[in-house]
Amino acid sequence: MTQSITPAATHAMLRPAQPPDPARVAKAAEDFTAVALGEMLKPMFEGTDHSDELFGGGEGEKTWRPMMIDEIAKAIAHQGGLGLNGPVTQAMLQMQEKAR
User: Fold this and answer.
1) Which strand (E) or helix (H) includes residue 98?
2) Phi and psi at residue 20, in whole multiples of 5°?
3) What is the Cα–Cα distance from 86 to 28, expressed in whole angstroms?
4) Do the beta carbons of residue 100 and residue 57 sit within 8 Å?
5) Which residues, given as ranges, of the chain have pLDDT below 50?
6) For the chain, domain boundaries
């Protein structure tokens, strides 16, 4: 017993059930900004690998560096994200409005 999915039913599934919540959209924009900033920060830390030297951090340094970069990016995004949070939030709200 399978039911066929009609185009109208598919369109109804794609539409948001409720209006966008600005707080959730702002949080998603901040998270997106943090990921983008993390990718921009990674090259800055590639030249700082001293884990194999006598007083380097060893395997712990290699393991924890990506998490440290992510946390730095989250902190920057939380403080405004180099001015990216506002435009990203607006773009996300516009996309949601067009989808309705």
Assistant:
1) helix 85-99
2) -65, 140
3) 11
4) no
5) none
6) 19-99
Placement of tokens 């435009």 in the chain: 87
Locate 84 and state its tokens. 């990216």
Residue type, 78: H
What residues contact residue 72 under an 8 Å CB cut-off, 6+ apart?
Answer: 38, 41
What is the rounded distance in angstroms from the CA atom of residue 32 to the CA atom of residue 85? 9
Judge contact between 41 and 69, C-beta under 8 A: yes
pLDDT tens readout for residues 50-62: 666 666 667 777 7
Give the amino acid at 89: T
Which residues touch 96 (CB under 8 Å, ≥6 apart)? 16, 20, 25
47 Cβ contact list (under 8 Å, min separation 6) = none
